[in-house]
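Blinded run. Sample ID left blank on purpose so nobody reads anything into the name before looking at the predicted structure. Input follows.
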Amino acid sequence: MSSPKPKIRKEAVPMPKQSPEERARNFREVAVGYTEEDALAEAERCLQCREAPCIKGCPVEVGIPAFIKLVRERRFKEAAKQIKEKNSLPAVCGRVCPQEEQCQAKCTVGKIGDPISVGRLERFVADWERQRGYAIPERCAPTGKKVAVIGAGPAGLTVAADLIKLGHEVTIFEALHKPGGVLTYGIPEFRLPKKIVEAEAEYIEKLGVTLKTDALIGRLYTIEELLRHFNAVFIGSGAGLPTFMGIPGENLCGVYSANEFLIRVNLMRSYDFPRAGTPICGGEKVAVIGGGNVAMDAARCALRLGAKEVKIVYRRSKEEMPARAEEIENAEEEGIVFEFLTSPLRLIGNERRAVKAIECIRMRLAEPDKSGRRRPVPIEGSNFVMDVDTVIMAIGRTPNPIIKQTTEGLKTAEWGGIVVDENGKTSIETVYAGGDIVTGEATVISAMGAGRRAAKAIHELLMKK
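Blinded prediction complete.
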């Protein structure tokens, strides 16, 4: 008689993390990470499905069952190699990728209990490798072709890694003084430590990629000038231009875009004051306008900078919030107050033109709009005033127009994004684009997926020439 199959444990191994009381006043990473025992226990839950629906849910198509099997066998070095066949930034993805909407949403185990914690296992493997030194894969023979990549964010780093492995010469041009793009300037230290981003970028350089920082394309060089020296160009410059509501008072002192606020905190290291001499005026009563991950990041940063009260003002209900459920939960645990079904009408200043209050109006939800979410409608006569001394606008970002303005023949959408085909090809021959500059503000992993598709298309193009 065959022995009975062991039962699959329905509950995922929980992620150890700092207590809310402790973490709300420091910028250390909230999630501590799996121990080896945790990782082995979670990996044992995987059914090793033949059809592997989880892979179909991954934008970069990581071989998930294969790497989890290697974790089970304690072959962590091989697991890292397996992941990096498709994903060059696993430590980043393991921390900030919305697995619950992608690979884990397709997980077979998720039909009877918690899905396999793919992201937590990916993070464990990536951290294990980083602590012991990266294994650098062999490159293909040099092709003699050169590719310029604009932007060292998730899309740009992914394109560069894929193309360098295929034998092409790759140079990344990054406008800021550090690589990483939104990974560096946008995501806070407590969600994605800077040392992780730096290590991932260093790995890309060790593959043979040349990185040039402080290189703003559109000013230092134009696309046309790059094409005189490179066989192809990939544009992955992201969406870094902040959006405002257009209501009275947005020019008052104490009003930030989330972009500016997070750049000051992250890239200028206000989170490390006074060791870093770049403080930011965070305020005691802070209101963050918006409901996405950026709003959660800004609110939780404000709390850690010493604010006594932080509110997130969102015009829909909790169910419609685009932020990850995990980030909403963390914010609630830390004491962030949510003002749902509320929309600002105007910002009110004092005699020194500093913001002191917000006039808001309550909303109700009507039929769904084109986004698929229920449309917020003002409730007449429900106006009220909220006392604040800092307001952070986190309602979205669009691409910086500098590349569009300096590139003749580049087709763009009305909102400013670059128009591409399914492979990332633009209206200009040998110029490709991907990530937030094409889609608008989206996830890290979706930008990486676009980068992989573009890299494949660029390689095919160059090999035909």
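Unblinding after everyone has recorded impressions. The two ends are 63 Å apart (CA to CA).
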